TrEMBL record:
Residues 39-346 form the Aminotransferase class V domain. It comes from Curtobacterium citreum. SUPFAM superfamilies: PLP-dependent transferases (SSF53383). It comes from the Bacteria. This is Alanine--glyoxylate aminotransferase family protein. Keywords: Aminotransferase, Pyridoxal phosphate, Transferase. Its cofactor is pyridoxal 5'-phosphate. InterPro entries: Aminotrans_V_dom, PyrdxlP-dep_Trfase, PyrdxlP-dep_Trfase_major, PyrdxlP-dep_Trfase_small, SP_NH2Trfase/AEP_transaminase. GO terms for molecular function: transaminase activity. The keyword Protease does not apply. It holds the Pfam family Aminotran_5. The lineage of its organism: Bacteria, Bacillati, Actinomycetota, Actinomycetes, Micrococcales.
Amino acid sequence: MHPVNPPARLLMGPGPITADPRVLRALSTPLVGQYDPWMTSAMNDTQELYRGVFGTANEATVLVDGTSRAGIEAVLVSLLAPGDRVLVPVFGRFGHLLAEIAGRAGAEVHTIETAWGQVFTPTAIEDAIVRVRPKVLAIVQGDTSTTMNQPLDELGAICERHGVLFYTDATATVGGNPLEVDAWGIDAVSAGLQKCLGGPSGSAPVTVSPRATAVLDERRSVEAGIREPGDDVADEPIRSNYLDLAMILDYWGPRRLNHHTEAASMLYAANECARILLDEGVEQAIARHELAGRAMLQGVQALGLGVFGDVAHKMHNVVAVEIPSDVVGDQVRASMLDDHGIEIGTSFGPLHGKVWRIGTMGYNARKDTVVTTLAALEHALRRAGHAVPHGGGVDAALDLYRDSTVSGAPVGVPA
Ligand SMILES: *Cc1c(COP(=O)(O)O)cnc(C)c1O
């Protein structure tokens, strides 16, 4: 039996990432019961902080207790009744996850697909909406499996035109890439802490527009027995208790109806993640992620490595680096971990064995972490027998930081 004494790793994969020490401290603060007035105000504060994170005035802004997919599932199982049509444009692994979860909720799932490493045009999505006539458009914003960031800014108007609810999974993007929930007309968003928000996984911030809340209200009235379930499939109660967003909103809302026992430690962590982001400023944090992402991109390119996908649509916070043909990808990853204490990511599906995914997000979107990772990668590649230019990656990254006017460090961390 080993004591819980994990090694101090530098987590530079596609998530989870090294948590901000302030978030770890928040996690170790005392538990308070959910009916304690202090907790009530902490919950209200957290809602207000996440309105700032998401760029929304939505009253219905809450945490779902669970990892990011708990947030995805809460939104989909609550908005979609059995038989409802949903359109899922799939451009990576998480698109398939949205389709699977919607299917398990009993929805009639329609997908369109684009090649991995590409994103959809608004026209392709509108054409599919016209053809499918879905109740909900469910689309991932940034899919870490391919590193692509799907532009969402034009989709709200399209959904509005066709009377479609617009949901996005912004787990991988929020806090490190632009996301304007109200300005872009998004009806439901779910996220997680373990990417650009710099926390551990285990809490899923969710926000829901008044238009989507109205759908939940309708379904809630069936559960409350106010209306009898009729022949209309949309009248069916939500097929989950734990992830019933209507109940979760009643629990967070002014009525404070009991639902689950608040996961107090995760609430502290989520609160601290949002506070850290808003202290820095959302725009400044996005600029810092953009800089770290560009430094990592130029660094790996200066090492002579190729990069996968349409780089113009890459998320700021992750890059897919092509594994040179003369090395074994997992051996280099093992050397990064064993010799340098740095974790980088493997890949799934069609990219398995072809690319490593390197993340620069949250607390780890910094100059020193970028440079340390590039130096270690150069070393691990050379040791594996692959010829790389001496110091090229580190110099490319340092030159970029030297010439930048953006602060390269999170608030409270020396640059
Ligand atoms: C990382 C990621 C998740 C993570 O889901 P978990 O349930 O927290 O593992 C979900 N969606 C996207 C788009 C992601 O990139």
